DNA sequence: AACGCCGTAGCAACCGGTTCCCATCACGGA
DNA sequence: TCCGTGATGGGAACCGGTTGCTACGGCGTT
């Protein structure tokens, strides 16, 4: 095999042209493939290309209007399993449609988010996908509306994926999944087993994801004519550590409950461990349910009853909807369904008095 | 607030110049910040910039040599927890150093990998980070060596992260972690409990990650003067489903063992569920250990004894080493240490005869 | 044999920026 | 009053590509 020794400086189209004894335009046309070029010339050019190991500069092509388009993906932390699945969906669909995929994690910092969106505008990204719930404040809507306008005026498109929609009029594509409905069905299932004091181990108090699931929790109670004890709503964040800590605290405080519905499977995992540590059995002493249906849920012991969310599909849809959109069309707003996955962690309450 | 109505076509530096009544060079200088410009002119320019919501095209800047550099990250599937943590480390360090971060998942397809690396060469990425073990064949070394040369000649740099090193001479940075050492210590710990028939639930048979861990398994046996029964080495892939299936099969086949060492925590999770389903207790009947120390490991029941791998640090180091490298310097080859995390899933073998 | 057409390749303009180099202007000192 | 000088801003070349338009040469046709 011929191995080029470190040429160090990348060669330009003019270098190739010189070596092939043709003009730069001819090289461009040979590489472009459509314009008619004689076999002899094509051969000489291809030869030179191979000799120099030449690849056209994608940035230069982009500025001339013929580049590989790019698409950006902004999330808080790719480490969370549900985010990772969305990222996977986004990435797969992006490459399927011939786009490159930029990633940025904001660590929850709004300034990072703004900076990154600005960079994406500069990059002329075809679409910017903002992922994950957040606090739905007027400030959020204002700021995000501005980002949407700003991107739109640059020919790009903002996509909100699992993130609260904006006021109508914002040039934005929204893909959501049904937090409230899933939680409603799940909690209804728990209540149907006979539980009456169900602890809700929530995520961040103002976070739309947690809030939606909390609404479902409340609605399921109301549908049965029940009003849940407000002291059964606990908040933290979405990590397994939060679930663990919250559960320990709840047990220590002597809170009375026979079932726990966690805001996410991660929280449920931590809570489960805390229950085990306290010597309680699941679902014998306490029933437990999660949300997200991450792959691990079935390996908890007992296997976790939870709500399945089509995260990967969500990601795929986000990019497809954004990229296949016809510029003049109305703004899309999709809502994906979820469904409960019944496993072994929810059973009837113990016959003795609840702890 | 003033909201620009959909300008549709992004404005250029000349538009700004025209509006401010100056030349394009002046706008460039105002935005650049260093060149002396009078306060009045600067004001007019900034005004025009704001009015038009102008952002300089990053691609055009890049081609002129003053762009935000980019860095690429290629992995098989971001869905795996350990990959996700590496990705997180890479992304954080990249943005810390002011780089953009492109991602691509290959789904294990070599052609995708090649295509993507070629695209990254076209993008003039500062570095391309290839992540995760693979089959270490001559073909692999050949192909990867070519990629390294090709990238090097384009001024870019290939980084192998947790992937087998190449023959000396390839312009490549290698960051590995100690698969063999971690497995050695882990298996030594298991053997010290008195186990003599330890099942190794491996990943893909030819995969360097699995192979390294397998070597540690064997070495730990040899160090005690033991020769493990070859039929105790099982192969599949790295998913929880594989672990589940393999374990079921082993039990059905009546394989005799008192402990299981899984190639990854994911595999261990599936295996654990299969053990539970078979009515076996862990570690009472069978001990179980994993590898990777993913966050979930401590929420398995019993909490999983495993080997901690500093995945995020690995990712961070990969980008730092690649980007802070002085062009002429020798090729780096880093080997990160691992350590065993003892939890509750490994205990002494049952006193009765092994199953 | 002359004409015209078609296939092929080159020139130059352009994409959207940056920056070198030079012209201009105002100002202070001699 | 004249000149040197430093502060500013413009013109044009350049980064590395693409592409519209044009020119040239060889071929078939009448």
UniProtKB/TrEMBL annotation, chains A, B:
A Pfam family annotated for this chain is: LacI
Instruction: Tell me where on the tree of life, at the top rank, the source sits.
Output: Bacteria
Which keywords are on file for this protein? DNA-binding, Transcription, Transcription regulation
Which GO molecular function entries does the Swiss-Prot or TrEMBL record give? DNA binding
Q: Which SUPFAM superfamilies match?
A: lambda repressor-like DNA-binding domains, Periplasmic binding protein-like I
Q: Which residues belong to any copy of the HTH lacI-type domain?
A: 11-65
Q: Which InterPro entries does the annotation name? A: HTH_LacI, LacI/GalR-like_sensor, Lambda_DNA-bd_dom_sf, Peripla_BP_I
* Stated name of the protein: LacI family DNA-binding transcriptional regulator
Which species does the entry assign this protein to?
Streptomyces olindensis
